[in-house]
Design a protein that fits this description.
Helix content is 41%, strand content 14%. The chain is α+β, with helices and mostly antiparallel strands. The chain has one domain. The strands form two sheets. Strands 2-1-5 form a three-stranded antiparallel sheet, with no helix packed on it. A two-stranded antiparallel sheet has the order 3-4. The chain is elongated. It starts with 6 loop residues before the first helix and ends in an 18-residue tail after the last strand.
């Protein structure tokens, strides 16, 4: 049996657990969501040469979050990278960097309150269960956003060069999108959150990918 270890793999398994509507599956979902957060943060850090090997090997949310902030310095802002045909102004492709927000990191750390043997019994009507489920549902929504973008970190400028790394869905023909010999112009802006409606030219990971 194949056990995928990408953030999207962990997220899919978590959603499958939550769809069981069985209290015991909440704990399995919590584990998968915690791993999804770690995997997405590690994926971002692994893609950049200016992050040390030691920092890339970390797994603690606090340390990963601190390393990401030092490496990218963008906080919770979403980066939009829009490529235009310089002559026609036509938008050729749009990429997004969707960060693991501080709120999502905080929620991942809260899971530790549930992934230990409880000190007392919680009946089916105990608010403890609904609070647990609400936390997991919120994290699913946050992770769907965090795993949408195809930029593995915001594009960074070094001298006269711009460095960017991407994780593109396999069916996307990037060569066709950019075209050969096309002069392009890049526009970069930041948003407080991912737009609810994305451009038709946006290359993103969809939920079933």
């Amino acid at each position: 049996m194949s056990y995928g270890m990408s953030a999207r793999d962990y997220l899919r398994r978590a959603e499958s657990c939550l769809n069981q509507n069985n209290p015991r599956h909440l704990f399995y979902a919590a584990f998968e969501l915690r791993c999804a957060v770690e995997a997405r943060m590690q994926q971002y850090l692994e893609s950049w040469d200016h992050v040390s090997k030691k920092q890339k090997q970390g797994w603690e949310i606090n340390k990963l979050g601190s390393t990401m902030e030092r490496a990218f310095k963008t906080g919770d802002r979403v980066m939009r990278w829009r490529v235009e045909d310089e002559h026609t102004g036509e938008t050729l492709v749009v990429h997004y960097y969707t960060p693991v927000t501080k709120r999502l990191q905080s929620n991942a750390k809260r899971l530790g309150d549930y992934l230990h043997a409880p000190k007392k019994y919680h009946s089916e009507t105990d608010e403890w269960w609904s609070e647990f489920r609400n936390l997991l549902d919120e994290m699913v929504s946050q992770l769907r956003t965090a795993t949408t973008g195809t930029l593995l970190g915001p594009a960074l400028k070094k001298g006269n060069h711009i460095h960017m790394t991407t994780d593109i869905p396999p069916e996307t023909n990037i060569e066709r999108i950019y075209g050969k010999g096309v002069l392009i112009k890049v526009r970069v802006d930041y948003h407080d959150k991912l737009p609810e409606i994305l451009e038709k030219e946006a290359v993103v990971w969809k939920r079933n990918e």
